[in-house]
Amino acid sequence: MNRRNFLTLTACAPAMAALQSMSRAEDELPPVIDTHIHLFDTERAGGVPWPAKNDDILYKPALPDRYRKIAVPPGIVGAIVVEASPWPEDNQWVLDIAEKDSIIVGTIGNLEPGKPDFRPQLERFRRNPLFRGIRYGNLWGRDLAGRLTDPGFISDLQFLAEAGLVLDTANPNPALLSAIVRVTDQVPTLRVVIDHLPQMAVPEDPATRSRYEADLQELSGRDQVYVKLSAVLRRVDGNIPTDLSFYRERLDILFETFGQDRLLYGSDWPNSDKWQPFNVGLGLVSQYFREKGREAAEKYFWKNSVKAYQWRKRHPSQPG
Fold first, then answer.
1. Can you tell me the distance from the alpha carbon of 173 to that of 288, in angstroms, rounded to the nearest whole number?
2. Residue 241 CB: number of other CB atoms within 10 A?
3. Number of domains in the chain
4. Most buried among 161, 203, 221, 262, by the most CB within 10 A?
5. In this predicted structure, what is the pLDDT of residue 157?
6. CA torsion 61→80→171→63, rounded to 10°?
């Protein structure tokens, strides 16, 4: 073992130990549904819009067989694929890939509400029960907040809600949280999932922080809004802490705000490869929810995902 690998394993030891502890019979990790992975094939004809070719970590095929190798051993039994492309036909590409592997229990696509082709496209893709909704936020040059005065956009979100599908949002910032409050005001039957909320830095500006805290409290009272405790790890002065104590305060705030019935696990694989090995992130949240008790852990790791995404079981190993 070289020095670099030794130092990486040493730094990750607390989270890895927590995951190993959860694997013992008396504290076995509940079956896990990973609600946030990305699939793409950098070797396919035509390439991919993301990741970039110069990304040495991410630019290689991210497909179910590779995911299985790292996810199944620690107890993951199902996953939901979240869009990684604004190209409409990539919705079908993901569905075709997902159809071939039962570890995929759902997909979140990329369509644009308010566009003339939104409803025909949604009707097309929702015929496949794996299609569970769309993601729209501030990615791909879009702006959820800027669309909320468009009646056609709101009407299409209502159509999405009537179809029983979900809206994922990313990446979190104060403006997006305020937009989610307005969305759920205008379409109160729409289930919304806020992706990667632990990743968002708490605003330092007093006025912005006050607005952010008010929006967070407002959303906490809306049962149709779910939060992914995903992308938990943070980089500080060039280092990525792996000890739960560094993250506990932030996790406590979100747990106390939204409660055990509205939080979801997501790995953000393969983005997670840019932070720490897959098991490190899983080990951190496993340790945290082990302390919360078995009921809270089961809700976080799989039960809440059923309520949020209404996915269907595809393999006997999957709960539900």
1. 24
2. 17
3. 1
4. 262
5. 98
6. 0
Provide the Cα torsion 149, 110, 266, 302; round to 10°: 90
Among 10-24, 151-165, 205-219, 242-256, the minimum mean pLDDT is found in 10-24
Residue 37, beta-bridge partner list: 81, 269
Span 75-113, pLDDT tens digits: 999 999 999 999 999 999 999 999 999 999 999 999 999
- Domain with 253 in it: 31-309
- Cβ contacts of 246 within 8 Å, gap of 6 or more: 234
Q: Does the pTM of the predicted model rise above 0.70?
A: yes
- Rounded-to-integer distance, Cα 18 and Cα 279, Å: 10
Q: Exposed, middle or buried, 31 (CB in 10 Å: 0-12/13-18/19+)?
A: middle
d(CA 208, CA 199): 17
Q: Six-digit token pair at 255?
A: 């747990």
